[in-house]
């Protein structure tokens, strides 16, 4: 697990740098920097807007039917999206913006919850 995390923390910045240089080659440095800043600003706006919408849904469901556990995955995806949008770079910016779209966020959340559920079952109830 630690090796995978190390590879991710090594690979993501390298991919970001490569993408920045490729974009700068085709668009120029000023446009590359402008696109990076614009994606961060757009992502921050979409992230805060999505967070408010998610929190409103959680509050409504909580008041009507109890704590909505099924919304926790979406909240985790939104937090990840906001962390991606803080990180400068085209790859994380695009992923962050994609994760703020509700349809994509719900699908990724379902996949994440299913994956975590399987991992927990395998670890605590081996077959």
Automatic annotation (TrEMBL):
One Pfam family, short name: FxsA
InterPro entries: FxsA (IPR007313)
Cellular component, GO, one term: membrane
Domain of life: Bacteria
Membrane-spanning segments: 5-23, 76-104
Keywords: Membrane, Transmembrane, Transmembrane helix
Keyword Membrane: yes
Protein's recorded name: Membrane protein FxsA
């Amino acid at each position: 697990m630690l090796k995978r995390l190390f590879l991710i923390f090594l690979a993501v910045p390298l991919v970001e740098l490569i993408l920045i240089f490729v974009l700068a080659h085709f668009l120029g440095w000023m446009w590359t920097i402008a696109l990076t800043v614009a994606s961060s600003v757009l992502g921050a706006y979409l992230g805060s807007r999505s967070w408010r919408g998610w929190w409103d849904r959680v509050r409504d469901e909580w008041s009507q039917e109890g704590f909505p556990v099924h919304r926790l995955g979406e909240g985790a995806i939104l937090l990840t999206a906001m962390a991606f949008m803080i990180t400068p770079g085209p790859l994380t910016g695009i992923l962050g913006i994609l994760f703020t779209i509700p349809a994509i966020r719900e699908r990724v959340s379902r996949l994440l919850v299913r994956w975590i559920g399987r991992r927990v079952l395998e670890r605590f109830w081996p077959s």
